[in-house]
Amino acid sequence: MKPVKDIKLQNGMTSNDIIKEFYESGGFTAKKLAEGVDILEDMIKQKDCTVFLSFPACIISTGTRGVIREILKRKLVDAVITTCGTLDHDLARVWKNYYHGTFNADDKHLHKKGINRLGNIFIPLECYGTVLEERMQPILNDLYKINKKWSTKDIIWEFGKHLESEKNAEESIMYWAWKNKIPIFVPGITDGAFGSQLWMYYQEHRDFVIDLFSDEQDLSDIVFNSKKMGALIVGGGISKHHVIWWAQFKDGLDYAVYITTAVEHDGSLSGARMREAVSWGKIKEKGTYVTVEGDATVLLPLMSLALFERIK
Question: What residues are annotated to the active site?
Answer without folding.
Answer: 282
